[in-house]
Design goal:
Helix content: 25-40%
Distance between the termini: 115 Å
Number of helices: 17
Radius of gyration: 43 Å
Largest sheet: 6 strands, mixed
Strand content: 15-25%
Shape: elongated
Number of strands: 21
């Protein structure tokens, strides 16, 4: 035996002992004398055997019979050679999986399972490049999943061979499929929750046309917390909301639902936009201190011709005016909801007749490796050329942004138009106003003014009388409890009559039950009884507005 060759494979002590024995071979006589135990310094036989006993020899890898090894490995092995990949060998595991295969035939006929799995090009690539090629987790005709590796093997006859080695990865593939199925179910749950929390039908204000759309992210992206809403505040005013909860999945959708519900509740207080965001900021911190959200809350008042808004870290509102010029809402913009410690402020942007405004989330304009301002600028250009109904504009903006089914983020878009009404349609939208000057004599002047306006608007007698009575009570309430300046405003739309009185006192009236002996306290109760709805709010410059509205009978009624 060649000890020099094997010494590298032995432990330190055994290697040194083997080298010593190679230099000083022991004769049979020496072994007998050592084993007899006689003579000075002799060692007992058992001890000698223990010191000189050698481990059984370990065969070298190149001495192992390759055919026997390949026959016994559990993986599937096949060897093909030549340009047509003639089959030279398959092991027992391969035969057990796919049956007996004819040796010497081209692989295309001898190994049809490889052709079905698309491995024939892989064999060519491995043969030409001289480098291994791998095809991961393919389901074979036997129902199991394998990872195939094609390794080129040089041959002495000038033709290169390719060794096909297939590892059974069925358990891993099934586990991965279960994981993907679980992720799909979670995504479907989040999408269902998200859509159920969004408004199923948008409220339809009298003076605005509105459309909205929501696109969840693609299958590789978890659903986020984008939302939008339209809230009619009464008195002809409308609140418009859009927001985006940071994060993904069911948790983001659930937080979104809580914020949307809170916005609708706070909107009933008819507060300025910045005060609504202030309340939402505190609520967002209570819901989850680690969750933040961006949001824009805007109010449209047809009498003002402007959109008053407040932004909590959200993208700017875009408005295209009647001439086609696109304006971008400027500051103020505060930090996202949930950060706390910030006093939000309200701003405004013109929204006159013929204008279109767009509120959107970052999924519409934000792209990887692109500056966010570039995305907003592209949206401005798209809005400048987008005409038609709000739904048409909405669809065009989404298409221009390249949003597809596999988009990597949620997208929410809210489009509103303040139409310029002309012709017969303009007769259905009218305004009339009267400054309430003087003292108690302002009340009869207000009644006479209201009677004349309602008559000119050709309202039926019953609605005329109710409108005059409501005007009288609201003006009397303002004269008794308010301070100048005072103003009466009548407004009609195609669906309702709105009566509003403003004054300089910011104390809001409330409905209360008047006792028989009370001389006051019945005005608001009367208005609440005869009108379809009523309300009050503080005005931005100080003071308050008290309003009521009557739903007009339909032409068929």
């Amino acid at each position: 035996m060649n000890f020099t060759r094997w010494s590298a494979r032995l432990p330190g002590t055994q290697r040194r002992a083997a080298a010593a024995r190679a230099e000083h071979p022991v004769t049979t006589t020496d072994r007998r004398s050592e084993g007899s135990g006689s003579g000075p310094g002799s060692v007992p036989a058992a001890r000698v055997e223990q010191l000189t006993d050698e481990p059984p020899p370990v065969p070298a890898v190149d001495e192992l019979p390759a055919r026997e090894v390949l026959d016994r490995v559990p993986a599937l092995v096949a060897l093909v050679h030549g340009t047509d990949h003639r089959l030279a060998y398959v092991n027992d595991a391969y035969t057990a999986a796919f049956g007996v295969r004819p040796i010497g035939e081209p692989a295309a006929e001898a190994l049809p399972e490889l052709r079905e799995l698309g491995l024939m090009p892989l064999l060519d690539q491995a043969q030409r490049s001289g480098k291994p090629r791998t095809l991961k987790s393919r389901k074979a005709p036997d129902g199991r999943s394998y990872t195939f590796t094609c390794t080129p093997v040089p041959e002495n006859h000038g033709e290169s061979a390719v060794l096909v080695f297939a590892t059974d990865v069925t358990d891993h593939a099934e586990a991965a499929e279960r994981l993907r199925a679980s992720e799909r179910r979670q995504r479907e749950t989040a999408v269902t929750l998200q859509r159920s929390l969004l408004p199923q039908e948008l409220e339809e204000p009298d003076d605005l046309r509105i459309a909205a759309t929501y696109h969840p992210g693609g299958t590789e992206a978890a659903v986020g917390g984008d939302w939008y809403d339209v809230i009619t505040l009464g008195g002809g005013r409308t609140a418009l909301v859009i927001g985006d909860v940071m994060g993904r999945g069911v948790r983001a959708a659930a937080v979104m639902g809580q914020l949307r519900t809170a916005v609708r509740a706070y909107a009933r207080l008819d507060l300025p936009p910045h005060e609504i965001l202030q309340l939402l900021d505190g609520l967002a911190m209570e819901i989850d201190a680690n969750q933040i959200a961006t949001c824009v809350y805007a109010i449209h008042d047809p009498n003002e011709g402007r959109l008053v808004y407040a932004s909590a870290g959200h993208l700017p509102i875009l408005v295209r005016d009647e001439s086609g010029t696109v304006l971008r809402a400027d500051e103020p913009t505060g930090p996202p909801l949930g950060t706390g410690g910030w006093m939000h402020a309200s701003g405004s942007i013109p929204l006159g007749p013929g204008s279109t405004a767009v509120l959107y989330t970052d999924g519409l304009v934000e792209r990887r490796n692109e500056d966010l301002d570039e995305g907003i600028a592209a949206l401005e250009r798209a809005l400048a050329g987008a005409t038609g109904t709000p739904q048409v504009v909405c669809d065009r903006l989404v298409r221009s942004a390249g949003v597809t089914a596999d988009h990597d983020d949620d997208v929410a878009v809210l489009v509103l138009q303040h139409p310029a009404r002309t012709g017969p349609d303009s007769e259905l939208f009218r305004n009339a106003a009267l400054e309430l000057l003087g003292g108690v004599e302002a009340a009869p002047r207000a009644r006479a003014f209201a009677s004349g306006v309602l008559t000119s608007w050709r309202f039926p007698a019953e609605l005329h009388d109710l409108g005059v009575l409501a005007t009288s009570e609201l003006v009397a309430n303002s004269l008794q409890h308010g301070i100048p300046p005072m103003r009466l405003r009548l407004r009609r739309t195609d669906r309702r009559l709105i009566i509003e009185v403003t004054d300089g006192d910011d104390h809001l009236p409330r409905r209360r039950r008047a006792e028989p002996a009370d001389e006051s306290g019945r005005g608001i109760a009367i208005v609440a009884t005869i009108a379809t709805s009523w309300g009050s709010r503080r005005t931005p410059g100080g003071g308050k507005a008290v309003w009521c509205e009557f739903v007009l009978p339909k032409p068929s009624d």
